[in-house]
Design a protein that fits this description.
Elements (H helix, E strand, L loop, with lengths): L1 E2 L5 E3 L3 H15 L2 H12 L19 H17 L2 H21 L10 H9 L9 E2 L2 E2 L1 H19 L2 H18 L4 H7 L7 H12 L2 H9 L3 H8 L10 H18 L2 H17 L20 H5 L6 H18 L3 H14 L33 H9 L8 E3 L4 E3 L5 E5 L4 E7 L6 E8 L3 E9 L4 E7 L2 E2 L8 E9 L4 E7 L2 E5 L6 E6 L2 E8 L29 E3 L9 E3 L5 E3 L2 E5 L7 E3 L1 E5 L1 H24 E6 L3 H6 L3 E10 L2 E15 L7 E6 L8 E5 L2 E3 L2 E4 L2 E5 L5 E8 L8 E7 L2
Parallel strand pairs: 6-10, 18-23
Antiparallel strand pairs: 1-5, 2-7, 3-4, 5-6, 7-8, 8-9, 9-14, 10-13, 11-12, 11-14, 15-16, 16-17, 16-23, 17-21, 17-22, 19-20, 20-21, 24-33, 25-26, 26-32, 27-31, 27-33, 28-29, 28-32, 30-31
Helix pairs in contact: 2-4, 3-4, 3-6, 3-17, 4-7, 6-7, 6-9, 9-10, 9-12, 12-13, 12-15, 13-15, 15-16
Length: about 750
């Protein structure tokens, strides 16, 4: 099974074409010189524009530039837009100039990069999940540049990008040459994107085995080994850190015919897609994998599945589909494409979503080109450039139709043009029209999705006898002529899809389309993000979950509560269900609890008090940091040495044998005290606590809680030092409270 090049598939009018055009405008709104500034600064070259703010000037300097290369290359391949090619050539040329100035193959935008990389080269390594020598995910950052240069070459045939890519790879090979395998694995503790994958790509491009050897070396054994043993060790791990590693495992497996590594990648995919993902295809809560048997925290959080995760799990799904020719990967790919990726961009104003909460009656935040430089903006500008990547695929002579998306396939090598005309999912049919230079014999294979029922296929109006098994291809083999038409008709039904933990929370899904209801436009604070460090998070209030809509029926026939209307609209009492990807600028509800009347009354009584307590403490909170979680710690300027993180007792935690520190904000000085919570009993003889560099004697509330009077400063810098190299307690939260 082979994919078609993006150049071979052009989108036609429809929801995906619109998303592509909106993304193109966003790409054009970004200033290449601002994105290049971190690279020029690091190379000691004059700036042509000041760098962007937000994440591009607070530690991840340059990461969007790498994504931008990929987006330009894929958008050019998909649309033939000349400005995309012009900008790509300019970006690559400037990066080549930086590389030449550095003189050793290196080019990067990482702050104080030369000093940082020299420390790594010398074996000076102190890393945790996202901080390597107190630098924010530097390998993750430079991976974006590696991937962008690869994509510029592979999708847009930019030969200069190929040379910069190889030069950067050779520099990195020399950088880690003195390191032992143990030291390399220590480096890989910190989020590093898909470094193993890009070195496998260097091998594909150059055929030089040294790059494949490096791909093996850069494969993180702490993740790989449990997967090889079919052990689920994912709960509590930072989700998007893991998925790119597995894409690399799969690529290396395919290149080396390593069945064990391929099995490990399949095990990971099945675990994440079937037991950790929600109806729209997303996974994780507050960026981490939640327990498979408890989605409660995801239901409560305003930080639901992260778009980057779905960006990467789709890349893995596509790789496994092409490798294994297993159509079940397409069922998940389609579900995630329509319901998460398509919904993650505002369809009119543009802007990308970071978190998609499943908390009832909550909402999402959209980026803006001038203010927002998050990771999900980087993957976001890529997401909507490449919708044509898997609509069709092919073998040596046969065509496979995988998705019902209006488009035109031009297989020039075979002299075949295939037009797909469809209003799916609003209409349950699609028409394929062939344009051939001469009659040809081949098989046209049309995917019969898992959700499709009563499928009928006609060729030039004549009904065909087909194998319409779900998650299989319907194969039409014949001598095709110019103008032949194939029509596909099917039925889609609505079903309830419960969360994987077996709870009574369910989503209404029509065919592959997840339905949701607009619930309110109240308090959509921060709907379009400002340039603040945490602008990607919602700022509006949390509405009580016990006030959410529920579906109550003593007979258990919950589907009977919805009534079809039109254009994929369904009435659910006072609510209107519609495709989730249509819902924007609004609070919404996607998941509904199902009850009989007695169970509903009991639930309401039990939940009301708990919800009130939770919302009350959030209302009293001025600022907080959840220790051991990547984004909250980055948002609060974490620094530390000899520190470990983990997940136990439903909490992420961080400890230290040296020190850890955070910067919290006591906005308008309304906070009265700082509360520190741990998982272990606190022995105050073994730690010292400093507030704004002053040694503090805290008050012990209980054996696992400390309280400190808030200082008179709006910025509160807290530093905890371990005495005599004795490991500290496991800290899980620091919270400033009003009273």
């Amino acid at each position: 099974m082979q994919p078609f090049a993006l150049q071979d598939v052009k989108l036609s009018k429809g929801i995906f074409k619109n998303a592509q055009e909106v993304d193109l405008k966003y790409i054009l709104a970004l200033n290449p010189d601002k994105l290049l500034a971190p690279y020029l600064m690091d190379a000691g070259l004059p700036l042509k524009a000041e760098r962007y703010g937000n994440w591009e000037s607070s530690g991840l300097d340059g990461h969007i530039g790498g994504h931008y290369l990929s987006a330009l290359a894929m958008m050019y391949a998909s649309t033939s837009n000349a400005e995309m090619k012009t900008r790509l050539q300019y970006m690559v040329g400037e990066l080549a100039r930086c590389q030449a100035k550095n003189g050793n193959g290196y080019v990067g935008g990482i702050p104080n990069g030369k000093v940082f990389w020299e420390r790594i080269h010398n074996g000076d390594i102190d890393g945790s999940s996202f901080g390597l020598n107190n630098t924010w995910v530097p390998l993750y950052n430079i991976h974006k540049l590696f991937a962008g240069l690869r994509d510029a070459y592979q999708f847009a045939d930019n030969q200069q990008a190929k040379q910069v890519f190889i030069g950067l790879g050779d520099w990195f090979a020399e950088l880690i040459k003195p390191l032992s395998d143990e030291q390399i694995q220590q480096v890989l503790r910190t989020e590093h994107g898909g470094m193993n994958e890009v070195f496998a790509d260097l091998f594909i491009i150059t055929k030089d085995k040294k790059y494949l050897d490096l791909a093996h070396k850069l494969s993180h054994r702490n993740l790989l080994n449990p997967l090889l043993a079919k052990q689920d060790k994912l709960t509590g791990l930072h989700a998007n850190t893991q998925i790119p590693k597995v894409i690399g495992f799969e690529k290396i497996a395919k290149l080396t015919n390593n069945a064990e590594w391929s099995d490990a990648a399949q095990y990971f995919w099945k675990n994440v897609s079937q037991t950790r993902s929600v109806a729209f295809g997303g996974n994780s809560v507050r960026e981490h994998f939640n327990p498979t048997n408890d989605f409660k925290k995801m239901l409560e959080s305003n930080q639901g599945p992260e778009t980057c995760n779905s960006f990467n799990i789709l890349r893995l799904s596509m790789a496994l589909f092409l490798d294994k020719n297993d159509i079940s990967y397409l069922d998940f790919y389609e579900r995630t494409l329509y319901n998460h990726i398509l919904s993650s961009q505002h369809p009119e104003k543009g802007g990308f979503v970071y978190f998609t909460p499943i908390r009832p009656n909550h909402y999402r935040v959209y980026s803006q080109p001038s203010t927002s430089m998050w990771c999900c903006v980087g993957s976001g500008i890529e997401n909507h450039t490449k919708y044509g990547e898997l609509i069709y695929s092919h073998s040596d002579k046969d065509i496979f139709v995988n998705l019902f998306i209006p488009s035109v396939l031009n297989w020039q090598e075979k002299g075949i043009q295939l037009s797909q005309n469809t209003d799916f999912p609003y209409k349950n049919n699609s028409e394929l029209v062939l344009k051939l230079a001469k009659p040809q014999t081949f098989s046209l294979n049309i995917r019969c999705p898992k959700w499709a029922e009563s499928v009928k296929v006609r060729v030039n109006g004549k009904v065909q006898t087909i194998n319409d098994q779900p998650s299989a291809y319907m194969s039409l083999s014949r001598n095709w002529k110019n103008g032949d038409k194939v029509s596909i008709e099917f039925e889609m039904k609505t079903h309830l899809e419960y969360l994987p933990d077996g709870s009574n929370w369910a989503a209404f899904v029509h065919g592959p389309i997840v339905l949701a209801a607009k619930t309110s436009t109240e308090d959509l604070k921060g709907l379009f993000a400002d340039d603040s460090r945490m602008g990607h998070e919602t700022k509006g209030k949390l509405f009580p979950i016990n006030k959410a809509y529920a579906v109550v029926d003593d007979s258990g026939n919950f589907l009977s509560k919805i009534k079809p209307h039109k254009n994929l609209r369904f009435n659910l009492d006072s609510l209107t269900l519609q495709p989730f990807y249509e819902i924007h600028d609004s609070r919404y509800q996607m998941y509904f609890q199902t009850f009989d009347k007695k169970a509903y009354d009991t639930y309401q009584s039990n939940l009301k008090q708990k919800e009130a307590e939770t919302l009350a403490i959030e209302a009293r909170t001025v600022d907080k940091v959840n220790c051991g979680e990547q984004q909250p710690e980055v948002d609060h300027s974490y620094k530390g040495e000899k520190s470990d993180v983990g997940y136990d007792d439903e909490h992420f935690w961080r400890n230290t044998r040296s020190y850890i520190s955070y910067q919290l904000q006591n906005h308008q000085k309304v906070g009265k005290y700082l509360e520190i919570s741990t998982l272990d009993n606190i022995n105050s003889d073994n730690i010292q606590i400093f507030i704004n560099d002053k040694l503090i004697e805290p008050t012990k509330v209980d054996n696992k809680t400390l309280r400190i009077n808030a200082s008179d400063d709006e910025a509160i810098h807290i530093k905890i030092m371990a005495k005599n190299n004795i490991v500290s307690p496991r800290f899980y939260q620091f919270r400033i409270l009003k009273e």
